[in-house]
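Long-time lurker. I teach an intro course on protein structure, and each term I like to show students one example going from raw sequence to a predicted 3D structure in token notation. This year I'd like something fresh instead of my usual example. Would anyone be willing to generate the tokens for the chain below so I can use it in lecture? Attribution to the forum is fine with me.
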Amino acid sequence: MKLALLDRDGVVLVNRPTNVKTAADISLIEGSAEAISRLNGAGFTVAICTNQPEVARGAMTLAQLENVHTALLLRLREQGAMVDHVFACTSASKNPRRKPCGGMLREALERYGARSDQTPFVGDQADDLKAAFHVGCRRVLVKTGLGAKALATGFPDYVHPFAVYDNLLTAALGLLRGMV
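-- Reply from a regular --
Happy to contribute to a lecture. Here you go:
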């Protein structure tokens, strides 16, 4: 099973200061649908692992979050990109599923029967790389979203090594060339 795991905001979707609460708020990062489509074409199953604490904070309901994810998957599908599932942790506090813990990624690996050492996780924050480290996934940082800022701030030594790309499309191309 070839599996690629992606963070949502800052990797697939443009980060918003108030977060994505409705389908109208969805704005894909340029090239993200093409990246997912290329991964699909190479036999990868693609899934998203995202922290969405707005539900626990009362800023949106679980039904609203599910509507956003349904709209996101449809928008991607319309552009030839297939995301099989969105794993979302709605807790606002420390939780084994919430990144930087690896529970959500582990759940995805188990669902698809994928090996962690052969599965990349693409994120834009230190917590993404930490979660990938905790489950043994290959770590990939993109400079979109909060990635450039995170790169300038630095990372704990234990998350190294990780690959760095400008965006999801260049990361997908690197993965397909065997560089990730």
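Some talking points for your students: The first strand starts at residue 3 and ends at 6. Residues 3-176 form a domain with the Rossmann fold fold (CATH 3.40.50.1000).
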